[in-house]
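Hey team,

Filing this mostly as a record. A colleague (T.K.) asked me to run one chain through the structure pipeline before their review meeting, and I want the input and output archived in the tracker in case anyone asks later how it was produced. No errors, nothing strange. Just documentation.

Input sequence:
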Amino acid sequence: MRTVAAVLYEMGHPRPYSTSRPLRLEQIEVLEPHAGEVLVEVQAAGLCHSDLSVIDGTRPRVMPMVLGHEAAGVVRRVGAGVTELQEGDRVVFSFVPACGRCRFCAVGRPALCERGNAANAAGCLLDGSRHFYRGSAALHHHLGVSAFSQFTVAAQESVVRVDPDVPPEVAALFGCAVLTGVGAVLNTGRVEPGTSVAIFGLGGVGLSALLGARAAGAHPVVAVDVREDKLARARQLGATHVVHAAEEDAAARVRELTQGGAAYSFECAGSAEVLEQAYRATARGGTTVAVGLPDPAQAARVPAVGLVTEERVLRGSYMGSSVPRRDIPRYVGMYQAGLLPVDRLLSHTIRLEEINDAFERLADGRAVRQVVRF
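Output structure:
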C-alpha cells in the first residue's frame, strides 16, 4: 500500500532546517506485515532530540531512513502468529523491540535487548526485513518504529496496547518522553518519598522526570535549565525551586537549596558538561543518573576518589530502564489518575508538512514536545 512519509536521505544538513529542509515528504510503498508483525496507522508522533541527533549527524544511522520513534496509532492488519493484538487496537510504540530471549531480556532488562538493539542499528525490524520502498530502493526503519509515516509496519514486540480513551497526541508521549523520564526516576533512580531531586535539562524527557519525581513524593525538586520559558513551565509542573544555569553556578546553587546536595540528580540534556554539573550537585552517598544522549565523542570527567570515599553512584538510564509492556500501561494509569499530567508537556501540534520548521524550533530550544497529528 502507499503511505506519505518524512524521509531523511543524508545527515548533517545545515541549519536552519526550515531552509535546508532535511526531511523530504514523499509517497512511498509500505509492504504487508510479515509473521509476528503489525501494520499500524499512525495517529500522532512526537518530535524528540533523538530524531534531531540523527538529522544533525551526532547519532549516526544508516541512510536513507523514515524517521520518528515516539508515536501512537491503531492496528490495521496483523501478520500470522500475532495473538495478543487485533485490528482496531490502540497502541503506543516502544523504540527497543525486546526479543524476550536474549540474556538481557531474560533478566528483565529489555532496553538492553541484544537482538532489538542490533536491529535498530541496522535500520531493520527484528526479523531483518525492511518494509518501506521508493521504487525498487529500500528505506530503513528508525528504531523499529518510523513514526513519521501515515502507515508503518512494526514487530509485535514494538507495540503496547493502551486504553483507547487517551487522546493520541497524549498517548504518543508515553513511548519515549514519559517512558524515559519517568522511568529514570522510578526504575533507575528508585527515588524515595521525601528525598531531594535535581533535574538538569527541561525538554520533554527532563520535564517527564520532573513529573515522575513529583509522583514519587520527592522534596525538594529543583529544576535546572538555561531557558526562562522552560523554567517557568517547570514551576507550573511542580518544581519547588528553579535554577537558571546561564546566570549562576548551577551545581553550587543546587547544593545550597538541598542543604549539601541532591540525593538524586538527573542529567537530561544530553551533554557531558551538564552531566559533570549534575554530579557536582549530588550529595555524598547520592545517585547521579545520566539520561540524555550526548554526542558519542563527548567524555565526562568525575573525581574518581569520590566514588569511593563518598559512596557515590553514577548510573546510566536507557529507555528509563523500563519494561514497556509493564510500564506504559502503568504510566497511562497514573496519567488517568491525575498523578502524571503528561498533556501539559505538549507545546505544539503540527501537520507533517510542517516537520522541518518544527525541528528547527526544537533545535533552537523553543519547544518542549511537538506532536505531528495525522
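Quick notes for T.K.: The chain has 13 helices and 18 strands. The radius of gyration is 20 Å.
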